[in-house]
Design a protein that fits this description.
The complex is a heterodimer. By secondary structure, chain A is an all-beta fold. In chain A, 0% of the residues lie in helices and 53% in strands. Chain A is built from no helices and eleven strands. In chain A, strands 2, 4, 5, 9, 10 and 11 form a six-stranded mixed β-sheet that branches. The chains are: A mainly beta, B mainly beta.
C-alpha cells in the first residue's frame, strides 16, 4: 500500500491563476505535513509546514490539512512563471527516539505557469 | 544563508565499484540524513544519523550502504558494490533539532552506475 499519493501532472496554468495541489495518504499516524518545491537538478526546498489538521497561510501560499480525510492541499494564489517547479508533499509521524523526523514524500507534481 | 554542500554533483561508476558520496551539513546542525530519488520516482528516506551513530534506517539501507562522519564536518554515504539500480539522485539533509521545520537539503549527487 503506497503511503503517500500525489498526482504527478504535469499541470499547466496561465499566470495569475489559482493553483491547487493535493496529496492523499494512508498512514493515520502522520502528524507533520510539509510542502517542498524542487527545481530541476536541485534539492527540495521547504515551502510550508503544518502540524496536525488546519490551515496555514504564508503570502500567496496556503496549506490545508484534513486528517479525517487523510488529504492535504497547497494553494498558490496569483501564480507566477517563477512558481514553475515540481511540488512535493511530505509527511512524518514525528520524532523516533533520537532519529529526528524521517520524511515520507509524494511523487511530486510538475507545475508550469505560462506568461 | 547556510547551505548543505554535496560533492560531486555527478558521479559515474562501473557496476561493482565502491563509491563515496560526500556532504558538508550546516555547521551547527546535529541530525543528518540521506535520501535518494530514482528518476521519475519519489524521494525516499535512507538513513538518519545522530550523535555519531545511525538512529533510523529504511529497508533500502542494506549492508551495501554505510554512513560516516569522519571529521566532525563531513558526512559520507558509501555504497560498497554498486548495482545498476543504485543509479539515482542522492540528497543529504541536516537539521539542528531534528524537527521537520529546519530540514535543509543539499543539491544532490547524481550517481550513474554503468
Amino acid at each position: 500500500q503506497k503511503e503517500v499519493e500525489q498526482d504527478p501532472g504535469p499541470l499547466s496554468v496561465p499566470e495569475g491563476a489559482i493553483v491547487s495541489l493535493n496529496c492523499t495518504y494512508s498512514n493515520s499516524a502522520f502528524q507533520y505535513f510539509m510542502w517542498y518545491r524542487q527545481y530541476s537538478r536541485k534539492g527540495p526546498e521547504l515551502l510550508m509546514y503544518t502540524y496536525s489538521s488546519g490551515n496555514k497561510e504564508d503570502g500567496r501560499f496556503t496549506a490545508q490539512v484534513d486528517k479525517s480525510s487523510k488529504y492535504i492541499s497547497l494553494f498558490i494564489r496569483d501564480s507566477q512563471p517563477s512558481d514553475s517547479a515540481t511540488y512535493l508533499c511530505a509527511m512524518s509521524v514525528g520524532p523516533n527516539s533520537n532519529s529526528g523526523y524521517a520524511l515520507n514524500f509524494g511523487k511530486g507534481t510538475s507545475l508550469l505557469v505560462t506568461p | 544563508e547556510p547551505e548543505v554542500t554535496q560533492t560531486p554533483s555527478h558521479q559515474v561508476t562501473q557496476m561493482g565499484q565502491e563509491v563515496i558520496l560526500r556532504c558538508v551539513p550546516i555547521s551547527n546542525h546535529l541530525y543528518f540524513y540521506w535520501y535518494r530519488q530514482i528518476l521519475g520516482q519519489k524521494v525516499e528516506f535512507l538513513v538518519s544519523f545522530y550523535n555519531n551513530e545511525i538512529s533510523e534506517k529504511s529497508e533500502i539501507f542494506d549492508d551495501q550502504f554505510s554512513v560516516e562522519r569522519p571529521d566532525g564536518s563531513n558526512f559520507t554515504l558509501k555504497i560498497r558494490s554498486t548495482k545498476l539500480e543504485d543509479s539515482a539522485m542522492y540528497f543529504c539533509a541536516s537539521t539542528l533539532t531534528g524537527s521537520n521545520y529546519g530540514y535543509t537539503f543539499g543539491s544532490g549527487t547524481r550517481l550513474t552506475v554503468v
